[in-house]
Amino acid sequence: MTHTTSAAIVLRRRDYGDFDLILTVLTQGNGVCTLIAKSAKKSVKRFAGILEPFAGLHIVYRQGHGNAMPVLEEATLEKSYGSVRNDIVKTAYASYWSELVALWLESGQARPDVYELLDYVLDGLSGNTAPGALLSLLFQMRFVGQEGLRPVLERCVCCQIDIEQLPQQLFCIDLRQGGIVCHACPSPETAQLQLGKGTLKQLLWMAEGDLATALRVRFSPRAMAEATTFLEAFVPYHIGRAPKSLAFLRQVRNPSV
Ligand SMILES: [Zn+2]
Asked: Per residue in 79-104, pLDDT tens?
């Protein structure tokens, strides 16, 4: 019987029958895994109520027989990401990020880069080091970048002319081509999505380098609103799925962001 030990963040939890739970977790060493926690609902003592969404755990699990789901054997709480579950807007952001990870990553593929990113933004959300809206821009820019889907924001995706060479201040987005389009090129179907030149530069700043440095960027309320609208259209479009939690996030957060 092979046992695997790993740090893991709970992405999703659902009931299975009267006694068991099924957990989707992002492990540090083995990527996304779906595990069954037997008797987790029946015996409070067994996992001590720690198998909650966005909990940072240290887990031990074993492969099931044949194609059976791996079984969670032990779990200890390493990081609770404190205030996230007590705040509905924080919960909504964490749900959105977790759902993107669960929807997009292949099971069992080691992704320490995504683990580090998710841990970082959950820490930031929990410790109030930055607003949820800003952490969400950082998460989305880095996540699509790590997946090879980073938007082209430094030049027109049609004619390839650099934004610095173009006099215009506002750029349309072509979701299908994955970037901005200048005024001289054919107007895209998604021309209602627009970003100012300043916002483009701020998003480019967030896309690279140290995570803490990337968070130092200061968005005006207008730039924050257009960057948020853009990324929440771009990311689902390119992963090819509409996260259910995005509708929830839009419902609960302050309409000004
Ligand atoms: Zn162009």
From this structure: 999 889 999 999 999 999 999 999 99
Distance 188 CA to ligand 1 centre (A): 11
Amino acid at 139: F
CATH of the domain at 23: 2.40.50.140
* Last residue in a domain, options 80, 114, 144: 80
Q: How many angstroms is it from 155 CA to the middle of ligand 1? A: 8
Q: What is the pLDDT of residues 149-200, one digit of tens each?
A: 999 999 999 999 999 999 999 999 999 999 999 999 999 999 999 999 999 9
Q: pTM higher than 0.90, yes or no?
A: yes
At residue 155, φ and ψ (nearest 5 deg) are: -155, 165
Q: For the CA atoms of the chain, what is the radius of gyration?
A: 20
How far, in Å, CA of 143 to CA of 141, rounded? 6
Q: Which of 48, 51, 73 is nearest to 60 (CA)?
A: 73
Cα distance between residue 180 and residue 124, in whole Å: 30
Spell out which residues have Cβ within 5 A of ligand 1, the ion. 156, 158-159, 182, 185
Is 85 inside a domain boundary? no
Position of tokens 């173009």? 166
DSSP string over 120-162: HHHHHHHTTSS-HHHHHHHHHHHHHHHTT---B-SB-TTT--B
- Give the contacts of 208 (CB within 8 A, at least 6 positions apart): 214
pLDDT confidence of residue 42: 81
